[in-house]
Structures are given as C-alpha cells and as structure tokens.
Amino acid sequence: MKTMKRFAGAKSVFLIVMVGVFLRAQSAPPAPDWLGVNIKVTLESVQAPAQSALPVLKRLAADPQRPNKLGFENTQEIDRATLGTPIVIFAVVTEKLKIFHAGSDTFGVLDQTPSSVIFPVYVHDQVRGDQVRSMIRLTRRTDGWHVAAFGESGLAKAIAQAIGQRCAQYFGVSVAAANLFYLGCTAQGFQLTATSDQYGFKSGETRPAAEVFLKLAPLAAVPARGPR
Amino acid sequence: MRSGAFFLLTTLGFLILWTQPAVPLFPVCRPPASDYLANFPYFAQLQSSWCWAATGQMVMQFLGKSVQQCQQAADQTGLACCGMPFPVGCDAGSWPLFEEYGFSYDMMAGKVLTEAQIKAQIHCSRKPIAHAYVYAQGVWDGHMVVAYGYSWDPVQHITFIEVYDPDWQQAPAIPYDEYARGPATNSAPWRDYYNITKK
Fold this sequence. Notes:
The complex is a heterodimer. Chain A has one domain. Chain A is globular and about 70 Å long. Helix content of chain A is 39%, strand content 24%. In chain A, a hairpin with a 5-residue loop joins strand 7 and strand 8. Chain A has six helices and nine strands; from the N terminus they run αααββαβββαββββα. The longest helix of chain A is centred in the first third of the chain and has 30 residues. Chain B is of the alpha+beta class. Chain B has one domain: Cysteine proteinases (Cathepsin B, Chain A), CATH 3.90.70. In chain B, strands 1, 2, 3, 4, 5, 6 and 7 form a seven-stranded antiparallel sheet that branches. In chain B, a hairpin with an 8-residue loop joins strand 5 and strand 6. In chain B, helix 2 packs across helix 3. At the A-B interface, helix 2, strand 4, strand 5 and helix 5 of A face strand 3, strand 4 and strand 6 of B.
C-alpha cells in the first residue's frame, strides 16, 4: 500500500514536471528562421575580411609611434594573438523599443540585418589559458564588410566576463539608445545576458529578453537632447 | 615699367589662386604621419547617458580645468546631480558646456573635420576634438567620443583616428572613413567641437 502511494506520488511529480516543461516550451516562442539564417550567412561572409584584419591589428599594435598597444600588454603578446569566436550583432531598433509592451514580439525589436560583427582577439597563456586582449569590429557597408575599429578591449573583456557555457550560439544585441550590449541566446527562449551593471541587471546575469526590453522601453522613449 | 609691374602682379595673383586660399602660402606646421596628445586623461562615463559629460571632462582636464561629470549634468539640467540618488532627469543626453566653463570653441554640425584638419588640430594646435555621431540618419540620438591622436598605416595607406570612448573604457583606432561615417551601418556625423581653447 505504502509502495503504491509512493509510486502515485512520484507519478504526479513526474506529470507536473512534464506539464511544466511542455508549457514552458509553448510559452517561449521559437527563434524565427531569419535569425539563424542571417547569423550563418554573416559568419560565412566575414571570415575573409577578419583574417585580413588580424595582421593589420598586429602591425598597428606593434607600432612604437602609437599611444597604446590596442589592449595588448607587450609586444610578445601581439605575435601570439589569434581571432576568437565571432559574435554577430543585431541592433535594437529604437523606434520599436519605444513601443515595446508585454506580449510584443521580442524578436520584432531587432533589425533583422546584422549591423556588425566583433571578433575578440585572444592571447594564449600557458598558465591562465586564453586571455582576451583586443577586438576587431567589422561593420556592414553597401560594398561589403569593413573594419570599423581595432582595439575595443573594454567591450571585449566585458563580453568575455559575461559569457558562459550556457549557449552554443551567442549573438550580440546592441541597444544604442541606452549604450548597452547584451549577449543573446535562444536555447531556452529568447534570453539576454548583460555585459555591464546597468538598470538593475548585473554583468553576467541572464534574463528573458521581454523583461529586459520592458525595462528599457521607457528609457528609449525619453527624447535625447544630445549624445549619450 | 608699367607692363613689368603688371606682369609681376598677375604672376603673384596666379600663384596665390593656384596654391588655394585655404592653405597658407608658407605653412608653419606640417603634421607628421602619426601623432597623439601625450598624457591625455581618460574618464569613463559615470552614468549611461553621460558620454558628453565624460568627453567634456577629458577635454577640459587636458586643457587645464577640472570639471566633474555630475557638475556638468547639474549645470545642464539645473538639478542636484552630484548627490546619490540623484533626481530623475540627471542621467540624460546633452552637449558639453565648454563656454560656461571658460572655453571658446568652433563647432561643425552634420559633418566631420577632414583628415588634414584633424592632424592640424592634434599636431599643430595640440587640441583634442569632441566628436559626436548619430546612431541612424534622421534619428537625433547618438554618442560622443574624443579624438586625441592619429596614426598612419604605411601598408594600407590609411589614417586611423585614435579615440577615447567613455562608454567601454577603451581606446580604439578607427579608420578615418569609418570615423567619419560612425560605427553603425546607418550612422552619420552629428557635431564636432574643435579649436577648444581656455579663455
């Protein structure tokens, strides 16, 4: 009798868990096809320009006339620099963020065409492993991808600190209206990981994209009196 | 005698026109391929919308006056922005108040200084440039950074602008063409403040 009761109890728990998993899967809208397609196509098209850009970064960083080494600590590091996993960036359209509300399509806030791709640049350290030092940013122009900046080491380090092992394919979500950058992932619904401590979110903290956009919508709606 | 003087004046006039009026006949300063403002201070923006205040702080500190970001925000908004928590309205986009703190400047809107002008500012005048861009054309929202140097890549024949970005605590090198267009696909120049001088 006791065994039967235990079995029934376990069965109920199992059913509840299964219903929960089913409901969660139903409530989290699947990632739209364009997202995966645009990431794949973009990654294919930026490999060649990124490979060409790495020697330029090394040459610039090693130039003794420069004011800084673009994130590298010494010239030995520059020689050992390699490109890391690229992150395709989708910009949040400010006009769409302004009117975002509960129930809005979270993916609908993004510009479907990736605006830029960033390549963290790593240096392998035998003791500490791979260490991020610098960054190459490519931006899409009408005639293809161009290097937009070398050496955005602050953002590269912020991303490296925030990034976890939770997602197989991160993508960048840039909220220009609030100077914010998130790491997007669709493995368990559309979620965003913060790369800085802002607006109640800690760096490395992951939240549903809808929650983040709801928090940022009022900020985007404030008219800008100047740059920010 | 008369025809000789006429010939001399005509030749001189032709020479002046030929060398273009914008370029001095006898340039006193020829910028080298690379240069930067040594000891230029870096300040990160202390609030999410204070790129303009951080830029103002960097520029004014370099030129000899220390003005805190919260003070600039307070003077700009009329609110008490140096206390914590500060009132709603302090953390907002704006423009550096150079004049209010005793600086004169020139400003160009909707376009950027040319490569030659940037080199002249940095090498000849030893002055930084406060450079703002809009995120998208027609949208009056953007970001401000400081240009404090330039460098030349002899292989690609490209001039890079050395920038202090108050947002991410970083100092990237940006190809001039990209600097002029702004970082995003649709971004565009907003304002450049240059010839900033302590009165």
